[in-house]
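Thread title: Can someone regenerate the structure for this chain?

I was given the following input by a collaborator and told the matching structure tokens would be attached. They weren't. Posting the sequence so someone can regenerate them.
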Amino acid sequence: MKQLLALALLVLFCACKSTKQTVQNTQIATNTIKKEAIAEIKMDTINKTNDSSYIIKKAKYLITEDVKIAEYDLVDKRQKFISNKKDSIPKNNEFNQILTKTEHSNIHFLWNELLQKHVSANGNVNYKSFKTDYKKLLEYINILAILKSKPEFDSISKEEKLAFWINAYNALTIDLIIKNYPVKSIKDIKDPWEQRLWQFGDKWYNLEDIEHKILRKMDEPRIHFAIVCASYSCPKLQNSAFTADNLEQQLTLATQEFLSDTNRNEIFENALKLSKIFKWFDKDFEQNGSLIDFLNKYTAITISAKAKISYKDYNWDLND
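Best answer:
Regenerated them for you:
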């Protein structure tokens, strides 16, 4: 009996020692991940931004979901970010003030990284490679959902809302294609613009809602050259995210590029062969004059007011 008791105690001792060692190993691994993440944050933000909210957000997605994020003393402003859940944001944390004007443009950094990696300068999308980063795309969509659910969202500027919804529309379109990939055309998907696949706050959205009930009601016709329907005849998908600070220049550039692309528009002084976008949404382009008045703001050619207008066939093949 004494021998059995001694053996049992030995087994218990070894088990406790093993458990303690496992905990220590886990803690070491966690600390290593934290150190590597902070090192990467520092390197990534040198000569780039001093905005600590960027650092906080970056940290959130550098740490794996399996590691519980404890307390960070994050360089420069020494702000603390405490979270045990992906969408748990402390009330007094700077992350909670993300919708202020100075920080809002930084929320799209993750989307910008994805665009730079998977979209060419010509707007061609590598959906196959995009799928390898699908988790990051879903993380970005989750960020948008969190921000839209915050009461501060209603008070942000028009430019911030435009940038938010343009990026959201494009990201959700990519998500729709990836969900159904491989596919030759967005029109091969059943009801692509009507499917309510994305929940922001207590509301489920589809692409049609975002385009027609939100973006078009903001009286900015150039949104039609910024949002992309994943098709060849659409305006190209820009490979950088839209931001409030650069929105005017970005919308102007997107408009100029679309009009000068002879695959999508052919513009001469007395004759126009235009994208059907100008036919489908004609009222949007006639808010402050005629369609030709609008075009003359963004074309190198001065178009006659009497120019004849026709429209190109629309190619719905995937923009890959």
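The chain has a mean pLDDT of 78.
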